[in-house]
């Protein structure tokens, strides 16, 4: 019980203080788990980060789950997730419940400021990921081709197909220049791991069929958010186009509400995937409010939990396979292209309507990328400035 409480309160502390996105979260985690508490060695931590970068889902949350798993078992993984996610989820749910009582149009200056700053945040994410994941002509070509295809024909299934073929391309045409850091972390139980992997794929296949058989909005929500959480490679920002494709065309959430929530998500600590709780809260169809928020939040994070518990026992063997490493190079490059397409639609097209909008967006980008100001400061400053310039 002592270990369980320690895991929860340590994760809760990180959930209240970890600003700046997934990369910053991993730095906070290293300081807390490696340097201060010494729950895991530096080499084992690097190996764990490499694994979570390979898996779909929010890498920082998965690292936290894995450390909770090693410290206090499966219940420890759950408590680690709850602690890290709870602060941002509560803030976003209250924000969502409040914003649904307002007139959500572009004439709300503060709301439009949130939509404009989202352009700067996504642009910075693309630049940072592009430098790291597309360092050569082959991978930048994958990114651009992915973006072009999605700008012509965009759907969640097409995105999955592109990721698959990018992985195949990586196996045959890309080279993994360096090996991953190695130190065994958590061997786990292969039987339990197999069950969790089966559940991951089983739910991914089962819920779309269940959705067709029963016209039930709870099933629809769970399926949409589970699929988004299961198919996102590259971190929280990449969930944006997947979720947008699920909730906006269906009429569950308007584009204005969607981008407002995304903007505020970048001004608070914790995982960006907590954005799912906001979408559940503001959904125009029931279940919404607190019930919808909890359903969407659990559904979005459940794939990550199942994969972490399922894959860790097999990681030692998988990490040595060169084809796995090369396929991930192609997939990661394609992720950059997905995000690049999302920068135009829906982020840019719903935020930039004038020279003032563009000026505010590039100013936000300047402070994020070159002055290295925390994203929450830039978001708040942009909203305040929007009151004076619109």
TrEMBL record:
<protein>
    <submittedName>
        <fullName>Chromate efflux transporter</fullName>
    </submittedName>
</protein>
<dbReference type="GO" id="GO:0015109">
    <property type="term" value="F:chromate transmembrane transporter activity"/>
</dbReference>
<feature type="transmembrane region" description="Helical">
    <location>
        <begin position="109"/>
        <end position="130"/>
    </location>
</feature>
<keyword id="KW-0812">Transmembrane</keyword>
<feature type="transmembrane region" description="Helical">
    <location>
        <begin position="225"/>
        <end position="243"/>
    </location>
</feature>
<keyword id="KW-0472">Membrane</keyword>
<feature type="transmembrane region" description="Helical">
    <location>
        <begin position="192"/>
        <end position="213"/>
    </location>
</feature>
<keyword id="KW-1003">Cell membrane</keyword>
<feature type="transmembrane region" description="Helical">
    <location>
        <begin position="74"/>
        <end position="97"/>
    </location>
</feature>
<dbReference type="Pfam" id="PF02417">
    <property type="entry name" value="Chromate_transp"/>
</dbReference>
<comment type="similarity">
    <text>Belongs to the chromate ion transporter (CHR) (TC 2.A.51) family.</text>
</comment>
<feature type="transmembrane region" description="Helical">
    <location>
        <begin position="292"/>
        <end position="315"/>
    </location>
</feature>
<dbReference type="InterPro" id="IPR014047">
    <property type="entry name" value="Chr_Tranpt_l_chain"/>
</dbReference>
<keyword id="KW-1133">Transmembrane helix</keyword>
<feature type="transmembrane region" description="Helical">
    <location>
        <begin position="359"/>
        <end position="389"/>
    </location>
</feature>
<feature type="transmembrane region" description="Helical">
    <location>
        <begin position="142"/>
        <end position="172"/>
    </location>
</feature>
<dbReference type="GO" id="GO:0005886">
    <property type="term" value="C:plasma membrane"/>
</dbReference>
<feature type="transmembrane region" description="Helical">
    <location>
        <begin position="327"/>
        <end position="347"/>
    </location>
</feature>
<dbReference type="InterPro" id="IPR003370">
    <property type="entry name" value="Chromate_transpt"/>
</dbReference>
